[in-house]
Amino acid sequence: MRFIMLIFTALVFFAGAIEPAQALPIGAAIAGFIGLTGTLASVVAAGINLAVGLGLSYLSQTLFGKKPQQGVGGMSGKLQSGGAVPRSFILGRAMTAGKLVYAGTWGEVDNTPNAYLSMVIALSDLPVQGLAEIWVGGEKVTWDPNATPGGIGIAIPEYRNDDKNHLMVRFYDGRQTAADTLMVEKFAGSAHPYLNTRIGTGVAYVVMTARLNDKLWSGLPQYKFVVDGIPLYDWRADSSAGGDGAQRWTDPSTWTGSPDNPVVIAYNIIRGIRFAGKWLFGGQTVASPQLPLSTWTAAANECDRLVAAIGSGTERQFRAAGEISLEALPADVLAELMKACNGRLAEVGGIYKPHVGAAGSAIFAFTDGDILSTDKQTLEPFPSLDQAVNAVTAKYVEPGEGWVQKDAPPLYSLTLEADDGGRRQAVDVDYALVFSGTQVQRLMKAARDESRRFRRHNLPMPSYCSIFEPNDFVAWSSDRNRYSGKLWRIDAVQDLPNLNSGWTLTEVDPSDYNPGALTPIVIAPTLNLPPAAQIIIDWSATPVTINGDEGSQRAGIRLAWDPNVDDVDGVQFEIRLAVDGTVILQSETDRYDAGAILISQNILGRTQYQARGRYRPASPRDTAWSGWLNVLTPDVAEGMTQQQAYELSLMTGDARGSMQELQRQLDEVIDRIALDGAENVGADYIQRAAIRGDLVAAIQQVTQAYIAGDTAIADQTTAVNVKADQMSAGGFVKFAATAAPTGVDVRFQIFLNAGSVGTPNWKEAGMVLDIVGGVSRCMFQVDKFSIGNGATNVVPFAIVDGVVYMSGVVIKSSNSVVQLDLRNDAMIFTEP
User: Fold this and answer.
1) What global pTM score does this model have?
2) Helix, strand or coil for residue 785?
3) Measured distance CA(325)–CA(206) in Å, rounded
């Protein structure tokens, strides 16, 4: 007796060589097949010439709650731990949470003991091709397997906080020859030592090391891993087996990739999954001749056939992947694989042949005259109403949502429901190894439509029909049944005692596999990373002058923010120099509710700074720095009185202010001349200027003598200015005197500038001679100070980065006992 079958018992299939189905007692021979409808057929002999009854399709079985004996694995999203965890391996690209092998804390960082948690997680009990993705807390993170690992591992950028890495990964594909050095280093001496003998030969695993941080981890880190599974043999890439390539069954090192072709996977399971020559799962003694490559190649190519995808482009018709538990029955795994590709697996005398997809062409045509009239034939025109399926819902694995199970778009038909008496007869199918939302829709539609090909015949056929096998397609023309070349699939063949054959036929229609309109898959976001950092509100930085005792002043900065926020217990801030980014202050205040703070520590007058701030959260969460705000502090010398600051500003501020005022007046004259359209102004004018295009030349002279109250004032200023595009040069000479009953002052100033304003090449120079408050002074503003006698010029002083340097000078004490000779790098002491 020959049946379409999945392996009928795990004992027979995997304990030794597979026996032909006819060797079993007919009444006990149960042979299932997974068809396009996923039908599990039962062939039971009734003790007469032919009485074969086919069971329910897998849709109908689902309707009545029939399921495989146990799960095959699929995708495991929960980390397993303990001493009785079943082993597993990965087929295709699939997700697993893995099995916890070892965990421990270690290290001290910033006075925090046990700052790191390292977890060793086994991903597959067979070597794999690679680690494709990592998901943390339900969110996909950036994983670059080619990145250069640090001392702890390859850092995950999403878990980098405060310029510190908080999650590192070390991956081993199962081909490693030594234990993980980090784990040995940190735990070899612990109470539960991690010794250098823990190589994990053949086991793919990761070492996940997390730096503890309450802002990032609310509990134990949760990981999921997408793995490119074990390499498999594909005879189509074996030139010695009629294919094209270097793969060889006897040399697993030649197997490349991790195929997700359901037929290729099934082939490997039937022949047996092994590691280092030792059997692990599947068949043990199945030989190559039992799997005819012509049939298997056709089925595998049908899986790889490109079909239209939603929107545009194409995709391979059938794919499958998953984590397979070694506790699963191989027969159940094969059933899931066949379900994933609309496949049927037939056994004929120990020979296994698959068929995938739509019905093929008829290889034999017959009429009523070919059917034996001496034996009984039966017809099942339609099942009972409660066995009819007109609606299908399904679940599959969705990679875009974290490789979790997702409901496929349901398949309903009002027309079919009307045919079934107005009832919706729905089943829910779990496609455990399918990870494509469009593929699952094609499977659902084909399964439903084929399940409604109700007509089944049991026919006695003559001996010349014994050459036909299950999964063959035949055409039947029947006047009795009004068939004209109608296409049928042979589901079972029974060898009768008189050398005749009994056929079980099911009507088929290739149009069942036309997918029709597919529903686009909507991917729900997986936003489970730590919440976005809180940004400080209304952050500002403004210059202030802070008044002290006895009229002293110093420059400061006022920082302000919005205090009306929750879960905040302080504000942190930083101040840096704008010119080079040097941070000169890092501090914080507990008085966030004040909304502002004045700072003067390390702050100099008339200096460009930048300030940023952020809230300090009360609970473990992240906050973000504001942007850097520019702030120019007031022109105030630290700790000086106003009089002292005034005197110091004579060289810089007052001279610069005078120059700016003269420049403003001069610009007004230049603008007025430009409006008048004149190129030159007569030499008799006090203000003279010449303008042509971007070229400007101007001279201004101001002479004043007046009485203001009880004060007499006289001053005279001469300024020059030239411009060419963005470059300019100018200067002024000013002589001023004031007299009042309270005192007299006199001042002589020279000020020059040149270059491009706001750039490093902008330079200023000046000199002030004055008598103020009865004290005479001389001040200079220069980069270098040179003194000469007509024959030699010497630069005794230079200012570099605010520091005064001396060179080429000799310093003597008044009695010449001590002499410092900077020309010759010598210090000389002389007896008095």
Assistant:
1) 0.64
2) strand
3) 19
